[in-house]
User: What shape does this take?
Amino acid sequence: MTSSNRPASPLGRVLVLAGGLCGVFGVALSAAAAHRGGAFTATAASFLLMHAPLFVAVGLLGGNRLLRSGGLALLIGLVVFSGDLLARDFLGFRLFPFAAPTGGTLLMAGWLCIAASALPWPRRNS
Assistant: This one.
């Protein structure tokens, strides 16, 4: 991190921004689900809120390439997964066929990358 306590890398800034936006939209969608119903909206809100702190942490930590790749995979997966659920509740149709399972698979892959980033990897001699 820089001395101004902001992420040094562009991806870090994107992830911190995404974390803040996930928090805002997660709270707003939780309220919408409580007032108008909508199981898909409630699920999307939960996913947004549970991933928001992760994006902030990965964005601020930086970490290794695998950690950053995992954060990016999680962000893309979350947008596709939650976007599909919200499209169903608010628009009455899916984003595209198998959007939610595709997003869910990306979420799982992202979490696996996060876990693998903690393992010791042998260094390559260049």
Observations:
- The chain has a mean pLDDT of 92.
- The CA atoms of residues 70 and 112 lie 7 Å apart.
- The chain has four helices and no strands.
- Helices lie at 10-36, 39-61, 65-90, 99-116.
